[in-house]
UniProtKB/TrEMBL annotation:
<comment type="similarity">
    <text>Belongs to the glycosyl hydrolase 27 family.</text>
</comment>
<dbReference type="GO" id="GO:0019377">
    <property type="term" value="P:glycolipid catabolic process"/>
</dbReference>
<keyword id="KW-0443">Lipid metabolism</keyword>
<dbReference type="InterPro" id="IPR017853">
    <property type="entry name" value="GH"/>
</dbReference>
<keyword id="KW-0458">Lysosome</keyword>
<dbReference type="InterPro" id="IPR013780">
    <property type="entry name" value="Glyco_hydro_b"/>
</dbReference>
<dbReference type="InterPro" id="IPR013785">
    <property type="entry name" value="Aldolase_TIM"/>
</dbReference>
<protein>
    <recommendedName>
        <fullName>Alpha-galactosidase</fullName>
        <ecNumber>3.2.1.-</ecNumber>
    </recommendedName>
</protein>
<dbReference type="InterPro" id="IPR035373">
    <property type="entry name" value="Melibiase/NAGA_C"/>
</dbReference>
<keyword id="KW-1015">Disulfide bond</keyword>
<dbReference type="Pfam" id="PF17450">
    <property type="entry name" value="Melibiase_2_C"/>
</dbReference>
<dbReference type="GO" id="GO:0004557">
    <property type="term" value="F:alpha-galactosidase activity"/>
</dbReference>
<dbReference type="GO" id="GO:0016139">
    <property type="term" value="P:glycoside catabolic process"/>
</dbReference>
<dbReference type="InterPro" id="IPR000111">
    <property type="entry name" value="Glyco_hydro_27/36_CS"/>
</dbReference>
<comment type="subunit">
    <text>Homodimer.</text>
</comment>
<keyword id="KW-0732">Signal</keyword>
<dbReference type="GO" id="GO:0016020">
    <property type="term" value="C:membrane"/>
</dbReference>
Length: 434
């Protein structure tokens, strides 16, 4: 074969393997039913909370009307227990007719009319984890086509009731089938979570080619214990997980439970901050109809969101683990900026942690600091010691702008001039913060 033709042919064959749907170049944001509403199908007695089209319509209205959508929270995702127990006469999945009388296509239209997107759930196996019809290998194509026909925008493919061999076939096959529909559908794979989340059983290079995001680990629950357990696993395994993430392919530590019952305000800020550092998908699972203003303020924090959504898409890492229970996390951001999180595992009282930017691997220079949760700003040289007061189970989060350009004068003037030479500089403050 001619060389060019050969290259073209090989590019084509890679093209059919790689997930090239163009979506989720930054971590997806939105709302997901599972953690808060589970498999409540008792619409007769609990109409406001049961898994029905009304719940998703209510949440869509809140996203569209309460300032969430403009911040990027656009996905409204159905999880388990939405379907009828039977496929239709043509073998297609169908929504439970009592709870979703309008059907999924109409629900997707409702989302699209409001600038939102609809996500749906299925399971690679004989049944979903909740016991609803699963998608066995022979059903993959028809189910992908059904979701595309319904104009669904995202699909979470769970892995209950299948074995490793079936998953190895099914997850890539579904990727191909979704691509073949021609509709860009964000593809969330639970595959790694069913295989322990680590190599050699999990192949993160392959996952990045076939999925947009993947659950690596167990389910989040509405408790600080659960959040901490997830945080620990993700940062203990950061060297494996960080290279897997990038635009269009994200590790998923599971939903935000901020706004529910289990976390204090400090713990809520900790989850938001660490999910931003991890470049994690931000799917809230809470009741947006009754959320407290405190939780809402945390979830709507523009600086935390813009750190999470940084276009470089580099997942951050833990850089310091002190015996005192203080840990420091860092994420590189566009334009030489970065984010820092000081986190306390302590349970006694606010801890005064002293350090300097030099100790945190920052190079020579003067940096403008924006405190994400207090809106305070200050300028710090790499050598200047500072103290942050970190609440028990809480965080202090900073956006650190690129160092001011070195001013030549500093080399010729007296030391008392140095500070002002730096401060004269107009630092690159991201527009969103102004
Ligand atoms: C699994 C998943 C959860 C949720 C439930 C639904 O446990 O990990 O996120 O989808 O199934 O049954």
């Amino acid at each position: 074969m001619h060389l060019a033709a050969l290259l073209f042919a090989s590019a084509l064959s890679v093209g059919t393997l790689a997930l090239d749907n163009g979506v989720m170049r930054t971590p997806p944001m939105g709302w997901l039913a599972w953690e808060r509403f589970r498999c409540d199908i008792n619409c007769e007695n609990d109409p406001k909370n049961c898994i029905s089209e009304n719940l998703f319509i209510d949440m869509a209205d809140r996203l569209a009307e309460d300032g969430w959508r403009e911040l990027g929270y656009v996905y409204v995702n159905i999880d388990d227990c939405w379907s009828s127990m039977e496929r239709d006469a043509k073998g297609r999945l169908q929504a439970d007719p009592k709870r979703f009388p309008g059907g999924i296509h109409k629900l997707a239209r409702y989302m699209h009319d409001r600038g939102l997107k609809l996500g749906i759930y299925g399971d690679m196996g004989t049944h979903t984890c909740g016991g609803y019809p699963g998608t066995t290998l022979d059903k993959i194509q028809i189910d992908a086509q059904t979701f595309a026909d319904w104009e669904v925008d995202m699909f979470k493919f769970d892995g209950c009731y299948s074995n490793a061999t079936e998953q190895e076939k099914g997850y890539p096959l579904m990727s191909k089938a979704l691509n073949a529909t021609g509709r860009p559908i964000g593809y969330s794979c639970s595959w790694p979570a069913y295989q322990g989340g680590l190599p050699p059983k999990v192949n993160y290079t392959l996952l990045g080619q076939i999925c947009n995001l993947w659950r690596n680990y167990g389910d989040i629950q509405d408790s600080w214990d659960s959040v901490l357990n997830i945080v620990d696993w993700f940062f203990e395994n950061q060297d494996v997980l960080i290279p897997a993430a990038g635009p269009g392919r994200w590790n998923d530590p599971d939903m935000l439970v901020v706004g529910d019952f289990g976390l204090s305000m400090d713990q809520s800020r900790s989850q938001m901050a660490l999910w931003a550092i991890m470049a994690a998908p931000l799917f809230m699972s809470n009741d947006l109809r009754t959320i407290s203003s405190g939780a809402r303020t945390i979830l709507q924090n523009k600086m935390a969101i813009s750190i999470n959504q940084d276009p470089m898409g580099i997942q951050g890492r833990r850089i310091v683990k002190e015996k005192t229970g203080i840990e420091v996390f860092w994420r590189p951001l566009l334009k030489n900026a970065s984010a820092l999180v000081f986190f306390s595992r302590r349970n006694d009282m606010p801890y005064r942690y002293q350090t300097n930017l030099g100790k945190l691997n920052y190079t020579f220079g003067s940096y403008k600091i924006f405190d994400v949760f207090t809106d305070k700003t200050m300028t710090l040289k790499d050598t200047t010691d500072f103290v942050v007061s970190v609440n028990p189970t809480g965080v202090v989060m900073w956006y650190v702008s690129a160092p001011a350009k070195r001013n030549l004068r500093q080399f010729y003037r007296g030391s008392e001039f140095q500070q002002s030479a730096y401060e004269d500089q107009e630092n690159a403050i991201p527009r969103v913060f102004l």
